[in-house]
Amino acid sequence: MKKRTAVLLALAVVVAVFTPASATQRSSTAVWSVIRNESVTMRLEGFPANDTIYVRMNYRDTLGVNGVLVSKLTTNSGGTFLAKFPIPDKFKDEEVISIRFESQTTSIPAWYNYFFNDTATTTPSSGDSDDGVTYNNLVPGFPTFTLTNMKRGAHISVVTKYFPAGDRFAILLEDGTKEIYNNWIEVAGVESAEGGTFSVTFDIPSSLQYKEKLAVMFYRIKDGFRTYDLYLNQDYP
To answer: Distance between CA 160 and CA 186 in Å, rounded?
Structure first.
């Protein structure tokens, strides 16, 4: 079990160097949680600004090369954030799935990782070790949100978790099937008040009501922090 936890936390990544300035920025990916046959949530750390990232999944040991396109991320100001990606039907019941992040606007190498297709959440342990592998000891409490209800083409309800207190967030939607996310639509604003967990319901714009997938982003006004999710546009539950 200890070995399995270590694999879940392993950063199987390519380290890239970015400009401007002379500083070296280390970018990485880490598995945050998995819902079997449904989705994987990744922590993307130190990502470059104003980049478009294609996210692909493929069978184990492929590094995600030529995989199924599951999402496209626009990094805006870059940095560190969580993003959840749906597991395609093609890979359901696969034990291990490769995931790959490919920049579409720069020549930097791709980042790649893999995850066990088994419901789990990371539980960092200081005792885990494995020569040659770098670990990202994730701190519990990174802001995220979970779908609780959706009426196809009409509205979406989510519940937040670990949101900071006293902040204002914009909620934006985008066509999750597009090649590039460059037309986010602000659909609501929310005050986090005491923070933590709270429910939010927002309408799906008419221009997106027939799209197969919808990308959802919470954007903190004061500093541009954001957390993403991607949903099929269907009735839920």
So the answer is: 18
**Number of domains, the chain:** 2
Which residue stretches of the chain are H helix?
2-9
Tokens of 115: 């995850």
- Residue at 128 is within a domain: no
Residue pLDDT, tens place only, 20-42? 332 334 577 888 889 899 888 88
Q: Are residues 168 and 111 part of one domain? A: no
CATH of the domain at 189: 2.60.40.2150
Token look-up 């494995």 returns 130
Say what the pTM is: 0.54
CA 195 to chain centre: 21
The answer to whether residue 137 is domain-embedded is no
For the stretch 111-130, pLDDT in tens is 889 999 998 765 433 333 33
**What does the chain come to in residues?**
237
Residue 237 lies in a domain: no
Domain that holds residue 219: 144-232
Is the pLDDT reported for residue 11 higher than 60?
no
DSSP 55-118: EEEEETTSTTTT-EEEEEEE-TT-EEEEEEEEPPGGGTT-SEEEEEEEESSS-PPPEEEEEESS
